[in-house]
Write a structure and sequence with these properties.
Blueprint: H1 12-49, H2 55-84, H3 93-118
Length: 143
């Protein structure tokens, strides 16, 4: 005989697994989004302060912007896992926590993605004729 409080319904097993997956994906993607914000706030002022915005610095800013989009997709995936894991049921506390953490992740990552899209992080690297290291200084021009 089985215990009355411990019913092992085979239909509940995938729901528990999806609830755990929702929490796991949501927490990892939230940490990714927040740490991308921290890197953005530390790196961006230094890159913009460089004369001519070094190519590697601009590439790093593009990678950080892409990480926000990855975190946004992972947060949406956590929401889907949470809903399919039973967030709407009365006993789906773990799935509900995963879905709500996924919503928080989406908000943080969406704010970062909008910041990346609207901030002028990329500028063309321009060499002025009189600056040292410019293109014109490599040729003699008959002088």
């Amino acid at each position: 005989m089985t215990e009355p409080g411990n019913s092992e319904d085979p239909a509940d097993r995938p729901r528990r697994g999806l609830a755990v997956a929702a929490v796991s994906v949501a927490v990892v993607s939230l940490v990714l989004a927040v740490s991308t914000w921290a890197a953005w706030l530390l790196v961006r002022p230094r890159v913009l302060a460089q004369p001519g915005n070094a190519f590697l610095g601009q590439a790093l800013l593009f990678v950080l912007g892409a990480l926000w989009f990855v975190a946004l997709l992972a947060g949406a995936l956590a929401i889907v896992f949470g809903i399919t894991g039973g967030a709407r049921r009365h006993d789906g506390d773990l799935a509900r926590a995963g879905a709500l953490t996924g919503v928080l992740t989406c908000l943080v990552a969406l704010a970062g993605a909008v910041t990346f899209a609207l901030s002028p992080t990329w500028t063309p690297i321009v060499a002025y004729p009189d600056s040292p290291g410019s293109y014109d200084n490599y040729f003699d021009h008959g002088k």
